[in-house]
């Protein structure tokens, strides 16, 4: 029964604030932006890590969370994560990948400000992860 109530709470949960969505695939940025907006978020998109850092430099304090793809050209997700953390050690980041890098996940998992979601992610999985990260 508690599981059913928790699922209902998650399905009804709406977020607020701005998410920086970083993914090199335009189709994923488009779909994820629509999903995130339907959950209640404003979305800023970046096609790679360098573009993400430009946005973060301008808007860092207003960004509630970074949804970060791990495999991108110019600056990959791990390099971007390291630079974001250098700028703000408390930035909340959800790592996304179609490939599981167990070593990378274990390096950041459980620190309370980083989570991982497998691509392709479903709306409810994304909502659950965001709810856990942002309350």
Description:
With 135 residues, the chain is α/β, with parallel strands linked by helices. The protein has one domain: 3-Layer(aba) Sandwich (Rossmann fold), CATH 3.40.50.2300. Helix content is 49%, strand content 20%. The protein contains six helices and five strands; from the N terminus they run αβαβαβαβαβα. The chain has a five-stranded parallel beta sheet, with helices on both faces. Helix 3 packs parallel to helix 4. The two termini are 21 Å apart.
Keywords:
alpha/beta, Rossmann fold, 49% helix
- Could you give the order of strands across the largest sheet? 2-1-3-4-5
> CATH homologous superfamily - what is it?
Response regulator
CATH architecture: 3-Layer(aba) Sandwich
Largest sheet: 5 strands, parallel
Radius of gyration, whole Å: 14 Å
Helix/strand order, N-terminal first: HEHEHEHEHEH
Mean pLDDT over all positions: 87
- Separation, N- and C-terminal Cα atoms: 21 Å
The low-pLDDT segments are: 1-5
CATH class: Alpha Beta
**Tally of extended strands?**
5
Oligomer: single chain
Strand content: 15-25%
What's the helix count? 6
Coarse shape: globular
Number of domains: 1
Structural class call reads: alpha/beta
CATH topological fold name: Rossmann fold
- Helicity, in percent? 40-55%
List the helices and strands and how they pair.
Elements: H1 2-12, E1 18-22, H2 26-39, E2 42-46, H3 49-59, E3 63-69, H4 77-87, E4 93-97, H5 102-108, E5 114-118, H6 123-134
Parallel strand pairs: 1-2, 1-3, 3-4, 4-5
Task: Give a quick precis of the structure.
This protein is α/β, with parallel strands linked by helices. The protein has six helices and five strands; from the N terminus they run αβαβαβαβαβα. The chain has a single domain, classed as Rossmann fold (3-Layer(aba) Sandwich), CATH 3.40.50.2300.
């Amino acid at each position: 029964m508690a599981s059913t109530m928790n699922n209902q709470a998650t399905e009804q949960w709406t977020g607020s604030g701005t998410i920086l969505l970083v993914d090199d695939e335009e189709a994923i940025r488009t779909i994820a932006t629509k999903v995130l907006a339907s959950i209640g978020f404003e979305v800023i998109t970046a096609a790679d890590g360098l573009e993400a850092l430009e946005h973060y430099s301008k808007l860092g304090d207003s960004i509630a969370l970074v949804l970060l793809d791990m495999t991108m050209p110019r600056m990959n997700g791990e390099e971007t994560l390291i630079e974001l953390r250098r700028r703000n050690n408390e930035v909340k980041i959800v790592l996304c990948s179609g490939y599981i890098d167990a070593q990378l996940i274990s390096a950041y998992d459980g620190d309370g400000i980083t989570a991982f979601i497998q691509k392709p992610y479903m709306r409810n999985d994304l909502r659950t992860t965001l709810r856990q990260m942002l309350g």
